[in-house]
Amino acid sequence: MANPTSTEAPVLTPQFCFNEKLLQDFLRLSRSSIDDSITQNLNALVMPSRQGFDPSSTAVRQTDSRGQKVIDPNACQGFKENVLFPSWQARSDVLNYCAGVATSPDPEDPDLILRQTESARDRERVVDERLDPYSARFFPKEARTESLANLVRNQRTVEEIIRARTWGLVSERCGGSSSSWEDALNDWRKKHQR
């Protein structure tokens, strides 16, 4: 089973968010330790030694995934409460914080003066598109807050997809839960006052 300490969120600062590689690495590592290896994490919860060895289990090849044993409900609940939901919450906290940073003014933007200069030059430019049809193109450099906002938006979409897939597997292996992953996570948040 994955180590719950691997889901701890980093210290949240604007510098962390603006370092997009560091932000993406945290999200990628968190997802790979829990969500990408969900089948292995769930298989680790099965305790076949408690039931004893059944010699007839080796007589037929088990290729049907529905033949997998349902995991002990207490083990499943413990996994969800102590590993899965804390991991999801840590990633949600990081994305929410960085979304706030992306929508705040950025007085320390290193490219602010360059963008302002380019913008002033662009306003003064006289374009004769008959001579050069491409001269009207102007690609202003994106502010780092805009870049961060796009990254956060994309990562939230990725989170939705990954969580839906993970929750489907957890529901299948742990005995079908009728609630969605959003409802289950919100219930966990209420219990843990997050």
From TrEMBL:
InterPro entries, sorted: MIX23, MIX23_fungal
Outline the segment boundaries, as ranges, of region: Disordered. Answer: 174-194
List cellular component terms (GO).
mitochondrial intermembrane space
- Any one Pfam family match given in the protein's UniProt record, by short name: MIX23
Origin: domain of life: Eukaryota
The family annotation for this protein states:
Belongs to the MIX23 family.
State what protein this is by name: Caffeine-induced death protein Cid2
The organism is Penicillium malachiteum
